[in-house]
Write a structure and sequence with these properties.
By secondary structure, the protein is of the alpha+beta class. Helices cover 44% and strands 22% of the residues. The chain has 16 helices and 13 strands. Pfam families: Peptidase_M16_C.
Length: 416
């Protein structure tokens, strides 16, 4: 069920008895820019750790414990060109709790979102410094993972210097120096007053009661802008290539392709099955031929990003085998273009994707994630997904495979 609480503030309710918990997701969405991701991530960390009524993490945790161990946390995410700050809450439904827990959790959400620890137009100084330090440590630790590092380097190679897609949704350490307890207040005000807001509720709830409770949150109307999540970029005439040397035991060869297949477009399901056959499932060509038969990779996977037209491959290899691996990957793609795969293998891939789709319905966060995409794109409810996966033909897959264009090759090597 859909309700408009104010201009630019929408409520989406999915009543279900599937879960014993009630789940709330509140998203604040705006276009990502070159410098807003870090600020918004730091803001999310500040909001989830302190409020005027609960000025410390300990005080906030004690209140959550009183709510039968409810969870309320904040983070950031991305949908193509769009940046989202997300509040998630999970708590025992009222029927099990035997009390009106829903209203109490909404009251806490109200405190977190609308009563942050701001005095004299600045965030509390010690809290700000702690959270800025924590975020710096968190981002730095991410890059200590060489697989993560290599993937970020591939993204930097693939996207042009001026592309907003180069900046990760969680931000960058270099941007933290620009942020203060004063200027972050403006970031907060812009988010609360101007961002598109979508509120999702999933659980054994009465939609009318949900609307009444969440309608009490003091969101003001904001301009309902048409947000565009999809990103496209021109093809490079020649693939970009970079080799970097670090003292790593396992080299990382990552490849980036353009594949102009976008979420729910006419080629979307063919693109999903193609990716499953290429490197996205245990039945893929990369897994069976590069990793298993040739024993040239510790892992070899592909991933399709259907909001940016990006297809990425990640491998862990011996540096001396880099050219062999690159050539063998190219051969797998050429074979798919030529239709060199069996009907049985196609059926295995489709079955694997269908099982993944069915399993995703067991997790509330996956359901809410799909609802978020549906809301942002103004799409009707997703139907006949299994039938659409199974309807993809060998010819469809080969046609999509021929759309794949190599654009970037990044090698993190331990050898010079």
């Amino acid at each position: 069920m859909h309700f408009d609480l104010a201009s630019g503030v929408a409520l989406h309710v999915t009543p279900t008895q599937q879960f014993k918990m009630t789940h709330i997701l509140i998203t604040f969405t705006t276009p990502q820019t070159s410098d807003n991701a870090t600020a918004r991530n730091l803001l999310a960390n500040l909001l989830e750790t302190s409020t005027h009524r609960y000025p410390t993490q300990t005080a906030l945790a004690r209140q959550l414990a009183k709510l039968y161990g409810a969870y309320v946390g904040m983070g950031v995410g991305r949908v193509g060109r769009l940046h989202t700050v997300r509040l998630r809450a999970g708590f025992v439904n009222d029927q099990i709790a035997g009390t009106n827990l829903f209203d109490q959790v909404v009251d806490l959400i109200n405190e977190i979102l609308f009563h942050p620890l701001i005095d004299d137009n600045e965030f509390d100084g010690p809290t700000f410094r702690i959270q800025a330090h924590n975020l710096e440590q968190t981002i730095t630790a991410l890059y200590d993972d060489k697989q993560f590092y290599a993937n970020r380097q591939l993204m930097n190679l693939y996207y042009p210097d001026d592309s907003i897609m180069r900046g990760p949704s969680f931000g960058q350490v270099a941007d933290l120096a620009k942020l203060t307890a004063q200027n972050l207040v403006k970031v907060y005000q812009e988010m609360i007053e101007r961002d598109r807001v979508d509120i999702f509720v999933l659980g054994d709830v009465d939609p009318a009661a949900v609307k009444d409770a969440l309608g009490q949150l003091p969101f003001i109307p904001r301009q309902a802008t048409d947000l565009q999540p999809f990103y496209q970029q021109p093809l490079y005439s020649d693939p970009k290539r970079q080799v970097e040397h670090q003292p790593v035991v396992q080299a990382k060869l990552n490849l980036g392709y353009q594949l102009p297949v976008y979420y729910q477009d006419e080629n979307y399901y063919a693109g999903l099955v193609f990716n499953g056959l290429f490197g996205g499932t245990p039945y893929s060509k990369l897994f069976t031929n590069v990793r298993e038969k040739a024993s040239l990779a510790y892992y070899a996977t592909s991933r399709l990003l259907p909001f940016t037209g990006f297809l990425g491959i990640q491998t862990g290899i011996q540096a001396a085998d880099a050219q062999k691996v690159e050539d063998l990957i190219a051969q797998q793609l050429a074979d798919i273009c030529a239709g060199k795969f069996s009907a049985d293998r196609l059926a295995e891939v489709q079955d694997s994707l269908v099982n993944q789709y069915r399993a995703s319905h067991d997790l509330a966060n996956n359901i809410l994630g799909r609802e978020l995409l549906r809301a942002l794109l103004s799409l009707p409810e997703e139907t006949a997904v299994i039938e659409k996966i199974n309807a993809v033909t060998a010819a469809d897959i080969s046609r999509v495979a021929k759309m794949v264009k190599m654009q970037a090759i990044y090698l993190l090597s331990g050898e010079k």
